[in-house]
Amino acid sequence: MCIDCRCADLFEKVSKELESEVDQLLYENRILEGIIKLKDNLHIGLAEGIELFSWRHDRLRELTPEKFKNSPEEYWSVFYS
Known about the structure:
By secondary structure, the protein is an all-alpha fold.
């Protein structure tokens, strides 16, 4: 299964409340907190949490680019996995 398909399937399990919380953390560039929130709430591993957070980041960049204060390169420059 492709990464997009797997992440889309997994994100369907996210409640609207959790989606809103994760999106806010994403917009605030609070990467680690967002990954941990997904990991803990969906009972997934760290690698899956990173993949899902990154996937959500890409989707929101497409849907609401105006909500991001920096480029994708700058956004991820503070996160080392």
